[in-house]
Amino acid sequence: KNEVEQSPQNLTAQEGEFITINCSYSVGISALHWLQQHPGGGIVSLFMLSSGKKKHGRLIATINIQEKHSSLHITASHPRDSAVYICAVDNTDKLIFGTGTRLQVFP
Amino acid sequence: DSGVTQTPKHLITATGQRVTLRCSPRSGDLSVYWYQQSLDQGLQFLIQYYNGEERAKGNILERFSAQQFPDLHSELNLSSLELGDSALYFCASSFWGTGNTIYFGEGSWLTVV
């Protein structure tokens, strides 16, 4: 079993839909990162959080430390949100990555 | 633009050869990380340097080595290359550690033929 599990693996949505991507982990962590990987390969850090909730524009990330679970929400999705979203947990200075969620948003 | 510069962007080489990937971290960042992304294993942490010293080690093969120089740029050396080493290699940097925002370079695509 992977230490970091993401669901779903693939997700398609119509423009404007509300999207949720989930991440569960089984190791102790000091922080959790949400990353976005574009089709060209580049990776951008979206959030780093260790508790509670963070919001940036249409993106919201939450984490429940007790339940070892985090969610990434995208409100009013747009085709430019199409990318792979990767959850990574910080385990003693090492990032352990989930396998990613491939999101496609259609107009 | 993350501020992290990686060269080369693409590299094709033969099995058994040795290559060096280069990374310049974002200005002011002291930590440099190397990651490997392959189709079958996803993203994996290789190694971290902080201010010139090795700080954390992941699934880095013995055929691979890295270092961080006094000007904080880093190099990842891959030797005795095998077909399975074909992957996208990312360098990333942060101010101190993984508890800070991590900035990724565009990656170096390595193809071993």
Describe this structure in words.
The complex is a heterodimer of chains A (107) and B (113). Chain A is mostly beta strands and 107 residues long. In chain A, 0% of the residues lie in helices and 62% in strands. Chain A is built from no helices and eleven strands. Chain A has strands at 4-7, 10-14, 19-25, 31-37, 43-49, 52-56, 59-64, 69-74, 83-91, 94-97, 101-106. In chain A, the strands form two sheets. In chain A, strands 2, 4, 5, 9, 10 and 11 form a six-stranded mixed beta sheet that branches. In chain A, a hairpin with a 5-residue loop joins strand 4 (31-37) and strand 5 (43-49). Chain B contains no helices and eleven strands. Chain B has strands spanning 5-7, 10-13, 19-24, 31-38, 42-50, 53-57, 64-68, 74-78, 87-94, 103-104, 108-112. In chain B, strands 2, 4, 5, 6, 9, 10 and 11 form a seven-stranded mixed beta sheet that branches. Chain B has a four-stranded antiparallel beta sheet with strand order 1-3-8-7, with no helix packed on it. In chain B, a hairpin with a 2-residue loop joins strand 5 (42-50) and strand 6 (53-57). Chain B is globular, with a radius of gyration of 13 Å. The mean pLDDT of chain B is 95. The A-B interface holds A 30-31, 33, 35, 40-45, 48, 50, 86, 88, 90, 92-100 and B 2, 33, 35, 42-45, 48, 55-56, 58, 88, 90, 92, 97-104, 106-107, 109.
What's the total number of strands of chain B?
11
The gyration radius over C-alpha positions of chain B equals 13 Å
Biggest interface pair, residues each? Answer: A-B, 24 and 25 residues
Number of helices of chain A: 0
Indicate the radius of gyration of chain A in whole angstroms: 13 Å
Q: How large a portion of the residues of chain B is in β-strands, by DSSP E?
A: over 45%
Largest sheet of chain B, in brief, is: 7 strands, mixed
Label the structural class of chain A: mainly beta
Query: What are the low-pLDDT stretches of chain B, counting only 5+ consecutive residues below 50?
Result: none
